[in-house]
Amino acid sequence: VFICILIKIGQIKCTPLSEISRQSFMDVRWPEYFMAVAFLSAQRSKDPNSQVGACIVNQENKIVGIGYNGMPNGCDDDLLPWSRSADDRLNTKYPYVCHAELNAIMNKNSADVKGCTMYVALFPCNECAKLIIQAGLKEVVYLSDKYHDTPEMVASRRLLSMAGVQFRQFKPKRSEIVIDFNSINHRGNAGLCHQRGEQLSQADGERPDSAAVSMNS
Ligand SMILES: [Zn+2]
């Protein structure tokens, strides 16, 4: 059984690898690692249009909070609306959904997140910027800024800048990271994590048990 999880963290063309290498696993740097964790978390979201994940990291490079966008605890994901538009705003997701940033902060497993860095797939909206500031985070690392010109993002940048919270865009060196669960059974444990290459494509096509989860930013 070949099971893999594919995490796409950008649209930069990756160099095809003809073989799975241990070296490529070693090459996962901290920012890439944390952003990949955010993207993997996002896969849990029930939102059909926008799956966003966030990962909070302290100054020792330890993860202290993870979250993804979803309905509040105890509020059924299947009963509340996921629509982006409707005649009545109450029939859209907006009055109900908790953004990934909020959940990551609320899910923290440390006393607080002061001085921490948040890795998040999308630049935070103004409501999340307020939370980020009040929680004492010092930096936001985001991948996509596709809503850059909306009032929410303009207000967010204004707030973050005034509060002295740094923000910078993450530019991944590769477009995706692949996790092959089956690699643990291979000699040498090669390919625990590797770039998507020909072998995965073959696996996709030929092995019905293969699974790939991908995410576009
Ligand atoms: Zn938000």
UniProtKB/TrEMBL annotation:
Its GO biological process terms? Answer: nucleotide biosynthetic process
**Taxonomic superkingdom:** Eukaryota
The UniProt keywords, alphabetically, are: Hydrolase, Metal-binding, Nucleotide biosynthesis, Zinc
Supply the SUPFAM superfamilies for this chain.
Cytidine deaminase-like (SSF53927)
Report the CDD domains cross-referenced here. Answer: deoxycytidylate_deaminase (cd01286)
GO CC annotation: what is one? cytoplasm
User: What's the top EC group for this one?
Assistant: hydrolase
Question: What GO molecular function annotation could you give as one example from this UniProt entry?
Answer: zinc ion binding
The CMP/dCMP-type deaminase domain, residue ranges: 29-167
Does Zinc show up as a keyword for this record?
yes
Q: Which cofactor does it need?
A: Zn(2+)
Which intervals of the chain form a coiled coil? Answer: none
Pfam families under this entry?
A: dCMP_cyt_deam_1 (PF00383)
Give the enzyme's EC designation: 3.5.4.12
The reaction(s) this protein catalyses: 5-hydroxymethyl-dCMP + H2O + H(+) = 5-hydroxymethyl-dUMP + NH4(+); dCMP + H2O + H(+) = dUMP + NH4(+)
Family listed:
Belongs to the cytidine and deoxycytidylate deaminase family.
Role description: Catalyzes the deamination of dCMP to dUMP, providing the nucleoside monophosphate substrate for the thymidylate synthase/TYMS. Also, part of a nucleotide salvage pathway that eliminates epigenetically modified 5-hydroxymethyl-dCMP (hmdCMP) in a two-step process entailing deamination to cytotoxic 5-hydroxymethyl-dUMP (hmdUMP), followed by its hydrolysis into 5-hydroxymethyluracil (hmU) and 2-deoxy-D-ribose 5-phosphate (deoxyribosephosphate). Catalyzes the first step in that pathway, the deamination of 5-hydroxymethyl-dCMP (hmdCMP).
Protein name per the record: Deoxycytidylate deaminase
Q: Which organism is it from?
A: Poecilia reticulata (Guppy)
Higher taxonomy: Eukaryota, Metazoa, Chordata, Craniata, Vertebrata
